[in-house]
Design goal:
- By secondary structure, the chain is mostly beta strands.
- It is 6% helix and 37% strand.
- It is built from 4 helices and 26 strands.
- The longest helix has 9 residues.
- It is globular and about 65 Å long.
Length: 424
């Protein structure tokens, strides 16, 4: 009864009030290496302990090979401070380890950690595509009772095996009013997926195409955290926006306020794999470019679209299509390469493009976004500045500043990285 009364007076039981003190008493110093990703050996995780930070995974990471020839794992940790508002946590290092061997497969610290973490609800610096991102605050400090998301994009060298289960070793210091005390903790065992990514044919006709906002950086797809139906999802993690590119490297020519000036407009969209049509939406008018439209109702986000089930729990989304151009109905069976509709500018779209991705559900909200690859294509260049949907039509000209890519050449069963120019 006395403990119950104390809880009523303070809002916490004596056990929870002692959490910060226990963490401070048990803290151990961990020397952080330089900033960036790294690999190496690590010690096994400790037994039960109070942890100032909790962590939860948001997806089952699926390994995929990108055009750089390396295996990638892209996923998120939703991290919460378990301490009071008067106490903060300085997070110095995040080591991702093989849970069986405890060997480090990737690390974040310093500037790289600061740029890969942000409080939930805070806008991402530089994500609007207009304002350059200011330097992220270093060190990374998580206030008491605050929730942060850590965006993990790990790359493994060729030939290196992917762990079946990952664990996350966090280290830093608890910053209490009485002074700092070092801590380290091992949290969130995360199983990696044993299901390989879908290997697809192109969703567009042969030609030169710009892959915009694909993984793995600070893009609105990769870092689009969405609170839907009482939980967080990253529904566009591996989505790609496709723009047709002309012989002179132009994405548009003439008047950028006219839909017909964009080479993508009314280009055919084709089935990247055979399957059954499970959702069709039509009748939403195209937006006038190049000004970003008002955010539409949630049900109109992807505009006119077609969703095709191609495997159990795997759906392909073709979005922002032109009203009246859709050529299939729900229940239809489609074959790979079949024309589904035409590229438009409907829904939450500023300039004409095809939004394409794999989903785990038939609807866009809520869903998870697993990776995929294309059977074959040729990389012919890259675009260094972030030119995407919201600023493409605001460029001085429609010619993309295409430069050589270190990954130029043919690729098979690879995922195109952000801002690559390729030929299907």
């Amino acid at each position: 009864m006395a403990e119950h009364d104390a809880r009523n007076r303070t809002g916490r039981s004596p056990l929870l009030r002692g959490l910060a003190a226990a963490v401070l008493a048990a803290g151990m110093l961990v020397t952080a290496a330089g900033p960036g990703y790294g690999t190496g050996a690590a010690t096994p995780s400790p037994g039960p302990q109070f942890t100032p930070l909790t962590a939860a995974g948001m997806t089952e990471p699926t390994p995929f090979v990108a055009t750089d020839g390396r295996t990638h794992l892209s996923y998120e940790l939703l991290t919460t401070s378990a301490l009071s508002t008067s106490t903060s946590v300085r997070l110095d290092r995040v080591d991702v380890r093989d849970a069986r061997t405890h060997r480090v497969v990737g690390s974040l610290s310093g500037r790289a950690l600061a740029e890969a973490a942000n409080p939930v609800g805070d806008p991402l610096p530089g994500a609007d595509g207009y304002t350059p991102a200011p330097p992220a605050p270093t060190p990374t400090v998580i206030q008491g009772s605050q929730q942060w998301i850590i965006w993990l994009d790990l790359t493994l060298d060729r030939g290196r095996s992917v762990p079946k289960v990952l664990e996350h070793h966090l280290s830093g210091a608890v910053l209490a009013p009485s002074g700092p005390s070092a801590f380290e903790e091992t949290v969130q065992a995360t199983r990696t997926s044993g299901t390989p990514p879908l290997n697809l044919n192109p969703p567009v006709r042969p030609g030169t195409w710009y892959s915009s906002e694909s993984c793995c950086g600070n893009t609105h797809h990769r870092r689009g955290l969405a609170p839907i139906n009482g939980r967080f999802d990253v529904p566009q993690r591996f989505a790609i926006d496709w723009y047709r590119v002309g012989e002179q490297g132009q994405a548009w020519e003439g008047d950028p306020t006219r839909l017909a000036s964009y080479l993508s407009y009314r280009q055919p969209v084709v089935a990247a794999a055979g399957g059954r049509v499970v959702e069709v939406r039509d009748g939403i008018p195209d937006n006038p470019p190049p000004v970003t439209p008002t955010v539409p109702p949630i049900e109109d986000t992807v505009g006119n679209h077609i969703t095709v089930e191609v495997a159990p729990g795997r759906y392909l989304l073709y979005a922002h299509l032109e009203a009246g151009s859709l050529r299939v109905r729900e229940g239809d069976r489609v074959g790979s390469g079949q024309v589904l509709g035409l590229i438009g500018n409907s829904g939450n779209s500023t300039t004409p493009h095809l939004h394409f991705q794999v989903m785990t559900t038939a609807e866009f909200f809520p869903t998870d976004s697993p990776p995929f690859t294309f059977r074959q294509f040729r990389v012919v260049g890259q675009v260094e500045p972030r030119i995407w949907d919201d600023n493409l039509g605001l460029q001085p000209t429609g010619v993309l500043p295409i430069t050589p890519s270190p990954y130029d050449g043919p690729h098979r069963a690879r995922y195109p990285l952000d801002r690559e120019v390729l030929k299907f």
